[in-house]
Design a protein that fits this description.
By secondary structure, this protein is mainly beta. It has a single domain (about 1-260), classed as PK beta-barrel domain-like (M1 Pyruvate Kinase, Domain 3), CATH 2.40.33.20. Helices cover about 15% and strands about 35% of the residues. The protein has helices at about 50-55, 85-95, 115-120, 155-160, 225-230, and strands at about 1-10, 15-20, 20-25, 30, 35-40, 60-65, 70, 80, 100, 110, 130-135, 150-155, 170-175, 190, 195-205, 230-235, 240-250, 255, 260.
Length: about 260
């Protein structure tokens, strides 16, 4: 197996940055999910998991340049994360006040409607949105959904016929394995170059993969096959539609695109 794609997402729910190599530490790829917007009205982290409110974030992209986060708007303007014009622009575009946070407050949560409700009723519907505490498998203060690293295999992607971009993984592993093989890797160690990961959970899927991502149109088929073909037990969360897996970092180092990977 080998790493065929390597991506970090400096701002949660924005499009990410393709990399040739990345430093991996206890909290995952350096600068991954390093910033997030928060809704000062509700106190929740803003995420496209709640598409009625925040799906517009998937039209923005974020990258790290010289140690600084830079965000490009749908209109092509680019702002540094510390530029007050960025929050002003986001607030005007999203229609709600937002704050850009550099550290995740303890207990931070998101609103996460059931993706089946979103599919059935549409992205503008006011569906029930239960809250979910994020970063439960992360000892740091970044804004990952659960564990520091998220990966998916090409076998799973090819089976689904869906672009990796929609699932927002850090690592795409080119592997000649069965689709959804990640389900069986839990508890095992994956060595990627000089980095060692331990697989922690299957990755539950919300409605995000079905939404517009930049120029990619909406695609409900990014979720539907998982509802019927890969509902699995996610320890602590129930039986959910999944694709890919989360991992914790056993040994950090540098991971490169093309690096060999082995279980």
């Amino acid at each position: 197996m080998q790493v065929s794609a390597l991506t970090r997402y400096p701002v949660k729910s924005m499009l990410g940055q393709q990399l040739d190599e990345a430093v991996v530490g206890p909290t995952g790829l350096e600068h991954d999910r390093w910033r997030a917007l928060m809704d000062p009205t509700t106190g929740y982290v803003c995420t496209a998991k709640h598409p009625r409110l925040w799906r517009r974030l998937l039209q923005y992209s974020a990258a790290v340049d010289g140690g600084q986060v830079r965000v490009t708007t749908p209109g092509g303007d680019t702002f540094g994360a510390d530029d007050p014009r960025l929050v002003e622009s986001l607030t005007a575009d999203l229609g709600r006040p937002v704050e850009l946070r550099a550290q995740r407050p303890a207990g931070s949560s998101v609103e996460r409607p059931d993706p089946e409700d979103v599919l059935a009723q549409g992205v503008e519907a006011e569906v029930e949105a239960p809250t979910l505490e994020i970063s439960q498998g992360n000892a740091g203060d970044t804004f990952v959904d659960h564990s520091p690293i998220h990966l998916i295999t090409t076998a799973t992607l090819d089976h689904l016929g869906i672009e990796a971009l929609r699932y927002r993984p850090n690592l795409v592993i080119d592997a000649d394995v069965e689709p959804f093989a990640e389900n069986d890797w839990l508890g095992r160690e994956l060595t990627v170059g000089d980095v060692v990961l331990r697989l922690t959970l299957p990755t539950p899927r919300c409605s995000v993969p079905t939404l517009e991502h930049g120029d990619l149109p909406r695609n409900p088929d990014a979720l539907r096959p998982l509802l019927t073909g890969n509902r699995v037990e996610v320890p602590g969360f129930g039986v959910l539609p999944c694709a890919g897996a989360y991992a914790e970092v056993v040994r950090g180092g540098t991971v490169r695109r093309g690096a060999l990977a082995r279980l």
